[in-house]
């Protein structure tokens, strides 16, 4: 679709998404967005890499319906996903789901990303191997699926993408960036530090 045919508010929101400052451990790039959920959509995918090993993956999709959507309580909707390997013992923690959801809520608040109508799930999966595969270690993963309607005047999607990225890093086990330290913009499509 010709970019000039897109609604101005959607073009601005996509530009803001791409302007988010992400940690250097995140490799982020544009990906195809779902086409049937909303009239306009844009999506980013990300991998969290530490010492050459992928420890987490995720995506964020921005949906836009200029006519509004009653279920969204607005004209935009963010849909986010994060998956990370976790210590198998963590998977047994009955509070892990609540803690995983709090990572998103806290990241949104910390970045000043105001939202309405948040919803989502936190899933923990543990895999044990038996028989001919008994030598393989037990593994566990955490998946966070969430959606929310970004609000604010003016609307700024940068904070929402940065909050999603922070939640992805937290789920992947990265320590928080120390207060007063500013992350440098990451060059999309390239691994490594800036």
Structure explained in plain terms:
It is a single chain. The protein has helices spanning 8-18, 96-110, 157-171; strands at residues 26-31, 40-50, 53-69, 74-86, 115-127, 139-150. The chain is an alpha+beta fold. α1 (8-18) runs parallel beside α3 (157-171) and α2 packs antiparallel against α3.
What are its keywords?
194 residues, 6-stranded antiparallel beta sheet
Alpha-beta classification: alpha+beta
Percent helix among the residues?
10-25%
- How many strands? 6
- Tell me the major beta sheet: 6 strands, antiparallel
Rg calc: 18 Å
Summarize the structure.
The chain contains 3 helices and 6 strands.
Topology, please?
Elements: H1 8-18, E1 26-31, E2 40-50, E3 53-69, E4 74-86, H2 96-110, E5 115-127, E6 139-150, H3 157-171
Antiparallel strand pairs: 1-2, 2-3, 3-4, 4-6, 5-6
